[in-house]
Amino acid sequence: MSAKKPPRPKNLTSMKMLGKQLGAARRSAGYTQGALGTLVGLDEETIASIEQGRRALKPDLAGLLDEILDTKGVLPAGVANLPEIDQFPMWAELYMEHEREAIALSWYDNAVLPGLLQTRAYAARARRR
Question: Residue 9 and residue 85: Cα distance in Å, rounded?
Answer without folding.
Answer: 8
